[in-house]
Amino acid sequence: MKITYYGQSCLLVEEGGKKVIIDPFLSGNPQVNVDPKDIQVDAVILTHGHGDHYGDTVEIAKNNNCPVIAIVELAQYAASQGAPEVVGMNLGGAKQFDGFKVKFTLAFHTSSIQDGDQTIYLGEPAGILLTMGGKTLYHAGDTALFGDMKLIGELNTIDVAALPIGDFYTMGPEDALLAAEWSKAGHVIPVHYNTFPPIEQDGDAFVAELQKKCLKGSVLQVGESVDI
After folding, report:
1. For residue 59, which of 43, 25, 77, 83 has the smallest C-alpha distance?
2. Which residues contact 65 (CB under 8 A, 6 or more apart)?
3. Which of 39, 48, 164, 205 is the most core-located residue (most Cβ within 10 A)?
4. Rounded-to-integer distance, Cα 218 and Cα 190, Å
C-alpha cells in the first residue's frame, strides 16, 4: 500500500493498480499546488462534509467518472452537485469494491457545508477503514478522542492510521498519542494540522513522542509518500 499526502487530511492510496483519494481538499489549500485535473483515481472517499475535506470531490469524480463513497446524506449532496455516481453508506457498514474494501467507523465531530447564508446538514461524520491488498488504513477523519478507538484497534489489524493532531477543531497531539496506542496502528501519519493558524502543530515533535512509546510514525510533506 502506497500512501501519498496532499495536505490537511487528503491521502491518495494505491495498491494493485487501484487508486482512491480521501478528503480531496486541493483547490484553496495554501499548502498544495496540485491541480485536481491531474488526479487519477478509481474512487473518492469522504469522511465528512466540511469544505476542507469535501473540497474538489465533484470535479475529481467527474474527471475520472468514478464513484463518491460517503455517508448517505453527504453522498446525496455530492450527487446533487453533479457527481456521476455515489455510494451512500452509513456508520458501521462495509462494502467490497473492485480492489478495495471500505468500512465507516464512528467519529465525533460535525458535518455540514455552507451555501450562502444557509448551513446544509450532511449526515454524521465518520472515520474510514480502507483495506487494499491485505493492508488496512484507518483514516480517523476529523474527530475527538473517544473510547471506542480501543475497540476499533481490537477488531481490526490496522497497518497504518492517519490521525488528526491539529487541536482546536479535532484531537490535539496528546489525545492523538492515545488514539495511536488504542488503535494499535503499525504506523501513524499525522494529518489535519498547519493548514491554518488555529491548527498549527509540530508534526516532528508528535512523531518523536510516538517513538518514545515504541510506535512508528512518519511526517509527510505535501506530495511525499510512504509504503506500508
Report:
1. 83
2. 84, 85
3. 164
4. 7
> Do the beta carbons of residue 34 and residue 223 sit within 8 Å?
yes
| Contact predicate 66/97, CB 8 Å | no
Residue range 109-137, pLDDT digits in tens: 999 999 999 999 999 999 999 999 999 99
**70-98 burial string, b = 16+ CB within 10 Å, else e?**
bbbbbbbbbbeeebeebebbeeeeeeebe
pTM, full prediction: 0.98
Task: Provide the 8-state DSSP code for 52.
Answer: H
Express each pLDDT in 80-105 by its tens digit: 999 999 999 999 999 999 999 999 99
Q: Which three cell numbers stand for residue 67?
A: 464513484
| DSSP line for 74-87 | HHHHHHHTT-SEEE
